[in-house]
Design brief:
The complex is a heterodimer of chains A (about 210) and B (about 950). Chain A has about 210 residues and is α/β, with parallel strands linked by helices. Chain A contains 10 helices and 6 strands. Among the domains of chain B are: about 210 residues, Rossmann fold (3-Layer(aba) Sandwich); about 120 residues, Rossmann fold, CATH 3.40.50; about 160 residues, 3-Layer(aba) Sandwich (Rossmann fold), CATH 3.40.50.10130; about 70 residues, DNA polymerase, domain 1, CATH 1.10.150. Classes of the chains: A alpha/beta (about 210), B alpha/beta (about 950).
């Protein structure tokens, strides 16, 4: 279902070489069109992708190097979208790791045509993203969430204990100040680790510096 | 007693034949000892250590010991040294923190002696040459069952064997199970440890049986206790929930192998971890719903246990907590709730649990408005009465036939599984003859039941506390719910309508039961169980019913408070003769308990196979101490099943091990690729790029990799070392592995990757790597056994909605990887299916590159005046702090530097916090800690 539009900025550009690639059938949520580009997929002004099936790569190991050379350093981010479609992929992946270093390409692995298409769509849709807040870490907002997050940092303590803890002491300050014995009683984990948990938590809290 | 093989007479404490045989064996040769649990492994180890310690001038390292064992070994060595008066013995030195400075450690090692060293420190010291492997007399490895090929301990053993061919090496384990799973596991394990001989000592070993089944056998009386009907109902209902959960799991993960997930395996102690382990290879691919169900299984298993262990009131309270924690945040759809909560069986659990505590009753002639009120039921645990019976019997016994004079005290030792049960039993025993007399009872002239022990007093008090707790708890959860709602109102959420469906606290539906069943759990509109809150009037009735009677008031209330708080006031020496001691099982530590208390009667409140053996060993070791054991268990319960299957599993494991040992072909490679292949060394010096193979001096040195010391928790350093790469452990600020002056690698396992995207760590790490290195790389490493794919089970074809340029907050892993590469176009990603692969990839990446400079690597990222020691902080409190609102990655360092611990932060006022983090953040932090959910409405 290719759409002809005058090379607008919101479509994925696909090289005619990709005709017949099952990935195209999975490209559903982004418009795409054929275009004469050096890469396989044009995902933005500075981003492109080359598609490589490991099955093909094993038969024609030199192919991908030719393609990379033809890019001539044109794009800033050059994705090598690699489909893992063979069982003994180790050798090829080792080689690609070295290649990515030498030839300035970023290897992205996918395991199905759908996943490959998903990557292409994602790259295109994030083309103009400037703020990377999604990967710069964000904190939970509500008090309850924060509370649970705070209390459950030590592995052995679960959500039910967190609720029990504040339920018994009212506030966190109270809970922190309570002795280990009382706290264990509060977090009284029915599964028999209550005391261990309370104690452990105390210990960890006090080991801070 | 002395053994001929030791250089000088040493006094040992091994009275039994099998212990002596084993000791002699161990002195003679290196071997792997697998001893059945409870047969005194630690005693053997300490005696062996002492025999070396007494000789002096030995440098012996204990690997893989836990804190408790260290304490034990230290004590035992000192004791032995005092008894055998050996002047050369030095006792144990424990090295377990980085705080022992390098210089001190070097001096300590030079002085020789016996050391117990944390593996992470030991491996670094061996690699840096601080502790020269050749100077070590021998290694003692504990918990040998945990040593797999890729573990740190196996790495240590390899370094040791590579450099030191003569030192001894003895490995111990008291857990045969891991040696019996997988393909020829024993042989593999022994190869990992470079050992030739395995020595197996099951309970049915001839020498063991002889030693323990002589005429000095311990007397054991088994008492089967029937469960009450309510308990049975609850247990059955929980099992039903488990079954349905397992069914859901199977449905949700069609592609997985799970034929053996059935109800039978659900009886096992760790069935939830078995399920988790089976899902582990695909953990990053399963839907969150599956993860939730696995979590539910843990909760359900906890409930199975607590229905037996907790009293009726505590169990109900526990259920309330579980329910509160699992109820959905308002505004979410019903799918977010655990499936088992929708079942009728769940209803049965909550309902029956409540009926064990109180029930409605018909008030004769009451008006319509108040036909039902609540009446306490307070079912007692059947074991309590039996326990009282047993104690009475012992009393009678002592009275009618005065004890034969022997060495044991008259003490009665009660063993149970955990400290909670200890507390419960203590209170029960203290109060069992206190009668909560109501007026009616006083009128009765003489009640035949009068002298029967009962828990009525304790239970009534518990119920009072419970009702009080529940009132507060209702308020707390209401506040939490409100909080959520406020947050939701702020955000524009199309699903907000749902939030209204659960107004806090009072919105409930009550089903009025006829007959005896008064209170029933209502159900929420979405079909799950709603938490039931009583009408104030009902609670008042109930409170009146159980109000404190005079008799009760006389009892001092201090029983409830922590006895440790004013230890000094209470502390006094009791006569051992008439003491009842309640203790929880604590593994090897129980041996000490037995030795110190010397009980004549032992009541095992809950079954424990290892403890029975310990009693056997104890009895056989002491000619003149009589012991009688009462063994209590609930018939037809999970507890019984678990005990039986544990005994059976251990026996099977040993049988399998014996078979494997009989047919084992051990391939011995004692020298772990000892010397470097000269051919390889030669080839490395030749550069094929130069015609004729001109020599290149720069690469003549063996390849090396600078590794961050924190990375030693993973198996990669060990595998790199296995490929003849020199490992240089350093404290790195930037990157995990430095392969060349230009290449810096940050390693992330898939779960790390998800975590570090979430808290933004990876972004910062990538930023700093780009400051110091030309070719930063991100290594995404899958586990050896994990499936090598990121693809989730659910397909994402219809996810167009989540695309959209504005929506840059994609939540799945793929979209985050995409964002990362867009943010750092020059960041290279290495995909590796296992640590083995990574080692090969590293080797290849390093080819034709210069070797890295450790000094430069350490210096990278450090501020000129910053101290490298900053790394020594414990990460957990930091993570906790990071969850506090107002704390940012920037000011967290200030806080950790300025304060001692979290407790201090929690107790600071705004004015104290202000200088560290500023006004706004200080107010937020202060508010987070002091917010009182009981007060604000």
């Amino acid at each position: 279902p290719s759409r002809i539009s005058g090379g607008s900025g919101s479509t994925i550009l696909v090289s005619p070489r990709q005709k017949g690639n099952p990935v195209l059938a999975c490209l559903r949520s982004m418009p795409w069109e054929y275009s004469d580009i050096v890469a396989d997929y044009g995902l933005g002004l500075t981003t492109c992708a080359l598609f490589l099936s490991l099955k093909y790569h094993r038969l024609h190991p030199e192919y991908i190097y030719t393609r990379i050379r033809n890019l001539q350093g044109k794009y800033n981010l050059r994705i090598l979208l690699t489909m893992v479609d063979i069982a003994n992929h180790e050798d090829s992946l080792r080689e690609l790791a070295k290649t990515s270093l030498v030839n300035n390409v970023t290897v992205i692995l996918c395991w199905s045509a759908a996943e490959a298409a998903r990557y292409l769509e994602l790259y295109k849709s994030y083309e103009h993203v400037v703020a990377f807040d999604a990967i710069r870490g964000q904190q939970a907002t509500g008090y309850a969430e924060r509370l649970v997050e705070f209390v459950t940092v030590p592995r052995a303590i679960n959500k039910a204990d967190a609720v029990a803890l504040v339920g018994t002491f009212g506030s966190l300050r109270e809970a922190v100040n309570a002795g280990p014995e009382r706290r264990a009683g509060a977090a009284a984990a029915a599964d028999g680790r209550g005391r261990g948990r309370g104690k452990q938590q105390l210990r960890e809290r006090e080991e801070d510096d | 007693m002395s053994t001929s093989s030791s250089p000088q007479p040493v006094k040992l404490s091994l009275p039994l034949i099998y212990q002596q045989k084993l000791f002699e064996e161990l002195r003679k040769e290196d071997e792997l000892v697998i001893l059945a649990r409870g047969l005194g492994l630690m005693r053997l180890v300490t005696n062996l250590l002492h025999s070396y310690d007494a000789a002096g001038n030995n440098l012996i390292v204990i690997v893989n010991a836990e804190d408790r064992e260290n304490a034990w070994i230290g004590e035992a060595l000192a004791e032995h040294a005092a008894i055998s008066m050996s002047p050369k013995a030095r006792g144990l030195t424990v090295v377990n923190t980085d705080f022992t400075s390098v210089g001190t450690r070097e001096k300590m090692y030079a002085a020789s002696g016996i050391f117990s060293i944390t593996s992470r420190i030991l491996v670094v010291d061996l690699l840096t040459g601080l502790l020269n492997p050749e100077t070590i007399t021998g290694l003692i490895v504990l918990h040998a069952d945990k040593i797999v090929a890729t573990s740190l301990e196996a790495f240590i053993l390899r370094i040791y064997r590579q450099k030191n061919k003569v030192g001894f090496l003895k490995a111990f384990s008291d857990n045969p199970d891991p040696f019996a799973t997988g393909f020829s596991p024993l042989a593999t394990m022994m190869r990992n440890m470079f050992l030739r001989k395995a020595s197996l000592w099951p309970r049915f070993h001839m020498h063991v049986a002889q030693s323990l089944e002589g005429k000095k056998k311990a007397e054991v009386i088994e008492l089967e206790v029937p469960m009450t009907d309510a308990m049975k109902q609850i247990q059955t209902a929980i099992m039903e929930c488990v079954e349905v959960s397992i069914h859901e799991l199977k449905k949700g993960n069609a592609g997985l192998e799970m034929d053996d997930w059935n109800l039978d395996s659900a009886l096992l102690k760790n069935f939830d971890s078995i399920v988790r382990r089976q899902l582990e290879p695909n953990w990053h691919r399963v839907s969150w719903k599956t993860k939730q169900i696995v979590g539910d299984l843990t909760v359900l298993r906890g409930m199975l246990q607590s229905v037996l262990a907790l009293d009726a009131v505590s169990f109900l309270q526990r259920l309330d907590e579980i329910h509160a924690a699992h109820s959905p945040a308002p505004g979410t759809t019903r799918q977010t709730q655990s499936p088992w909560l929708f079942l009728d069986a769940a209803h049965t659990i909550f309902d029956t649990a409540k009926r064990r505590v109180y029930t409605g009753k018909q008030k004769a002639g009451g008006d319509d408005a108040n036909i039902d009120a609540l009446r306490p039921v307070l079912e007692e645990q059947p074991k309590w009465a039996l326990l009282a019976d047993v104690l009475q019997e012992i009393d009678r016994d002592l009275y009618f036939e005065p004890a034969v004079r022997d060495d044991s005290n008259g003490t009665i030792l009660i063993m149970c599984s955990d400290t909670n049960t200890c507390r419960q039993l203590r209170i029960y025993l203290e109060t069992m003859y206190v009668k909560p007399r109501t007026e009616k009872r006083v009128e009765d002239f003489h009640d035949p039941d009068e002298d029967k022990p009962s828990a009525a007093f304790m239970m009534r008090r518990k119920l009072r506390n419970y009702l009080k707790w529940k009132r507060e708890f209702a308020r707390v959860s209401a506040t939490l719910v409100q909080e959520n709602q406020k947050a939701l109102n702020g955000a524009v959420d199309p699903r907000l309508g749902h939030a209204k469906s659960r107004a806090p606290a009072n919105k409930r539906r009550r089903v009025r039961g006829g007959g005896g069943v008064g209170a029933m759990t209502g159900r929420l509109d979405n079909g799950s169980i709603a938490q039931y809150f009583e009408k104030p009037g009902e609670v008042a009735d109930l409170m009146a019913e159980i109000q404190i009677t005079e008799e009760e008031a006389k009892q001092k209330e201090d029983i409830e408070t922590d006895p440790l708080e004013n230890m000094d006031d209470y502390y006094q020496l009791y006569e051992m003769q008439d003491l009842v001691v309640i203790h929880a099982y604590e593994g090897d530590q129980d041996e000490h308990v037995l030795e110190e208390i010397k009980p004549k009667y032992i009541i095992m409140y809950e079954p424990d196979a290892a403890f029975i053996r310990r009693v056997e060993v104890y009895r056989s070791s002491h000619n003149d101490r009589n012991v009688r054991v009462y063994f209590l268990y609930y018939g037809g319960s999970v507890e019984e099943q678990r005990y039986l299957s544990m005994v059976r599993r251990e026996k099977d494991a040993f049988t399998k091990l014996i078979k494997e040992r009989a047919s084992m072909a051990v391939v011995m490679t004692v020298d772990a690729h000892g010397i470097e292949d000269p051919q390889e060394a030669f080839l490395r010096t030749i550069n094929t790029r130069i015609a004729g193979g001109g020599k290149l001096a720069a690469t003549a040195q063996p390849p090396r990799v600078v590794v961050d010391v924190r990375e030693f928790r993973s198996s990669l350093p060990s595998l790199l070392h296995g490929r003849n790469i020199v490992i240089v452990p350093c404290m790195l600020t930037v990157g995990d592995y430095i392969l060349s002056p230009d290449i810096c690698v940050e390693r992330k396992s898939v779960s790390d990757l998800i975590g570090s995207f979430k808290d933004g760590r990876l972004y910062t790490q990538a930023e700093t790597m780009f400051q110091y290195y030309k070719h930063p790389m991100l290594l995404i490493e899958f586990d050896q056994n994990k499936s090598f794919t990121l693809e989730p089970f659910a397909d994402y074809s219809g996810s167009a909605a989540s695309l959209g340029a504005a929506n840059a907050g994609g939540s799945d892993l793929q979209s985050k990887i995409v964002l990362l590469t867009l943010a750092f176009p020059k960041l290279r990603i290495i995909w590796s299916s296992s640590p083995y692969e990574t080692a090969e990839i590293f080797e290849r990446l390093k080819k034709n590159e210069h070797e890295p400079d450790p000094l430069a690597a350490v210096r990278a990222g450090l501020d000129k005046d910053a101290v490298a020691e900053e790394q020594a902080f414990n990460t957990e409190p930091q993570e906790m702090l990071a969850a506090v609102p107002g704390v940012t990655p920037k000011n967290i360092m200030n806080i950790t530097l300025e304060t001692e611990n979290i407790k201090e932060v929690a107790n600071m006022e705004v004015t104290d916090l202000q200088p560290m983090v500023g006004v706004e953040a200080a107010r937020q932090i202060h508010g987070f800690f002091t917010r009182d959910l009981l007060e604000d409405e």
